[in-house]
Amino acid sequence: MDSANATMGDMVMAGFKKLGFIQFTGIESVEYGPGRSVVGMAARPEHFNHNGDIHAALLFGLAETAAMGASISGIVDLLADTFIVARDGRIEYLARAKGQEGPFTGTAELTPETIAETRANIESRTEIELEVPVIIADVTGKPVARAAFTAVIRPRRK
Fold it and tell me: pTM for this one?
């Protein structure tokens, strides 16, 4: 990450880390830039299910964190006038997320065109819904889940 993106990523993750769930999971920022958010989570014993895999709810949380990070990555300068929330999410588990194959990363990416359209909608005070795709991979890069979240972005009420 270049220093400006690293600073912005640190600022976004600092906000996320105020949430108890993020504190429990230990989710950290790996890479951050306009249209891209990569977050990681090291496997802890309290994260495992009865099979020794990362619990599905934690993978879902990792994916949501990456998606919401990406959804604000190109509009951080407009956040004071913007309300953003995840409306829904879905996930498909592709392979076992074995605890010893961590840390796991969630990668969410948006196109420059999507960022430009999002910015234009915010500046015109138009509510939008944005689908943000995410891939979760193990330490080898093997995908273990695919997810998508809908971010609702609307003008902040005054």
Answer: 0.86
